[in-house]
Specification:
Elements lengths: L1 E7 L2 H13 L5 E7 L2 H12 L9 E7 L3 H9 L6 E5 L5 H11 L1 E2 L6 H6 L2
Length: about 120
């Protein structure tokens, strides 16, 4: 399973990215996306992308997907998300801390999986 960090400027863009992960990147989201601390996101982003992150990010969302890191990265590269998306691999030292944060974090309201609707038929 991979963790995907979404850094959006607003809620609408974050919701669009989540929909794009399912529809276009064909990833399976596990559970509910969660809002996480902006401070935590800043540090992780700085380490992963190796540059100073943008300061105008207002909605940091963390989501877990069934697919592994490599599949997640390759599938996301094919899309053009309206926000900054980072796949966090188990190899990063921050992975375990983010997973703990994810388990304690508040659910990101407004997201409903389109795949769940298909499963009910």
């Amino acid at each position: 399973m991979a963790l995907i960090l979404i850094r959006a400027m607003n809620k609408k863009k974050a919701l669009n990215v989540l929909a794009d992960l399912e529809r276009h990147a064909k990833l399976n989201i596990v559970g509910k996306p969660k809002l996480i601390s902006s401070d935590k996101v800043y540090d992780v982003t700085k380490r992963v992308i190796k540059q100073k992150p943008r300061d105008d990010i207002k909605v940091p969302v963390l989501v877990q997907v069934k697919e592994d890191t490599t599949v997640s990265i390759l599938n996301i590269k094919k899309t053009h998300p309206p926000a900054h998306v980072i796949v966090i691999s188990e190899e990063y030292p921050e992975y375990d801390d983010l997973l703990k944060e994810f388990n304690k974090a508040k659910v990101f309201d407004g997201y409903y999986s389109s795949k769940k609707k298909k499963d009910k038929k």
